[in-house]
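Quick question: who can interpret this fold?

. . .
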Amino acid sequence: MREILGKTKTVRELLKGVKYSIDYYQCEYKWQEKQIRELIEDLSGRFLEDYQPGHPREQVAEYGHYFLGSIIISRKDNTNFIVDGQQRLTSLSLLLIYLRNLQQGRADQVNIDELIYSEKYGKKSFNLDIEERIPCMEALFDRKPFDPTDKPESVQNLFARYGDIEEYFPEELRGEALPYFIDWLIENVHLVEITAYSDDDAYTIFETMNDRGLSLSPTDMLKGFLLANITDASKKTAANALWKSRILQLGERGREVEADFFKAWLRSQYATKIRERKKGARPEDFDRIGTEYHRWVRDNHEAIGLKQSTDFYRFIERDFDFYSRQYLRLMEASEKLVPGLEHVLYNAHHGFTLQYMLLLAPLRPDDTEEVVQLKLRLVAIFVDILLTWRLWNFRSIAYSTMQYAMFLVMREIRGLEPEALAVKLRETLDKEQETFATNDRLYLHQQNRRYLHRILARITNYVERQSSMPSRYLEYVSVHGKNRYEVEHIWAGKPERRTGEFPNPADFADYRNRIGGLLLLPRSFNTSYGDLTYEEKLPHYNTQNLLARSLHPQCYEHNPGFLRFVCESGLPFRAHDHFRKADLDARSEFYRQIAERIWDPDQLLREVGL
């Protein structure tokens, strides 16, 4: 093996003026929402442990450091080819582009352009220089529209993950803390760059580092500790067989599912404290379970009732078996519509992974199947209402924003019976300051398009289901296919058509984005009819979903299921021959009233007969 160099580098040292590429045989950029969310949570959480507002920025140098992992480079033909680490480097580049865009117009912005691209002879090129990705990267960098449809997998994931970064970047880092965070990211976050000077050497290193044949995962270490404390040989054998079988089932759901399960289970049943968001605060139960659940169980085994051999056996044979089965059920419900647990899917579509520990919290191993189903449904409905209220009021539902509040709810509902659970969750919603009534100006913007898409899908589906039509929710939220549904404007983007009501084009653009001026329609519809006047589009609306059809007078003729619903609901359905400012206002109020029916907190009490 020839010369191999390994060096720890800061993000600045790694990316400043250095070009990286990948060979044609390398895999695609495959990171999904979960990996991006966890990266942002890890970085922001570590930064916030030290951040205190008001001190000079140079004090960031004294903050703690964070290790982001290693990358392996094959150096050939004066080019750095990434052998391992392109997922991490690509995601880091996306984060830097987002941070660059976020701080535009600020007086305290940090210059990070040189970490994203370099310029030679007036030509800009990205430091992560991969040809097929350049148009997408340029669009994100310049904040211009980009259509990833029919593009390669890597390009589609690039575009989607940038949207995830916009969605999950914490609110508390967008203001005064932003330059401090950027300073910390580029100076205090480190990676190890391992450089070889041939592909053979680089891949030998890669294979050696990824040979996990003798490595023990946290789950393996937890299993070893638990089984070592079971003295009865036959029970130890039975517990081992159960453990192996269930871990295999969890593993079939995804690479990180088993770890996610243990974190959700142990937090839901045992976490009593969470780290305060202030400098020097120490990790508590909630935090330690998230980073080292195997050690937490070992260190706290007596406190959680593991004292004798029979306790350890029961912990696997009863508790592990019960909660892992429920977790697998919830995983299924987060991927498809399961009768009675539909709200689990709705919450999963918002990317709200905190729901799993909440869902497990009230469950007890001796609950009947009927009680388990009811408890899960109650908690899922509660989460659905809470998230939608927040989104309706432009509030973040990011993990870092919601973590502390959800920890408190989890602790309060632990082990509750259905009636007490419904009452507690209803009381929790009563304390919320913001509901549908607190915002009559919900509008579409770049960061909430995905959320509004799902809200509109729920409203559209509700109208159709109440009119005795089959559910099409999954069709409305699917992101695949050329005719997938998208949020579309009733008004074409032509301010000159509405100068009588909107002399200022900016006022027109603001109004056009309001909730009452939006529909869910197939992508091809907007391509064909998007620029037409409302009056020209109206006949075509009558061929679409029922919410769109309700704009047309013919929807109110010979449509018994719909007419019955209109009569019984008392909702202000009406046709609109024209669609002026007053019509849009009326439609916005109409949508709000439908939302109040779908996300009615009293349904929690009705579920238990109260």
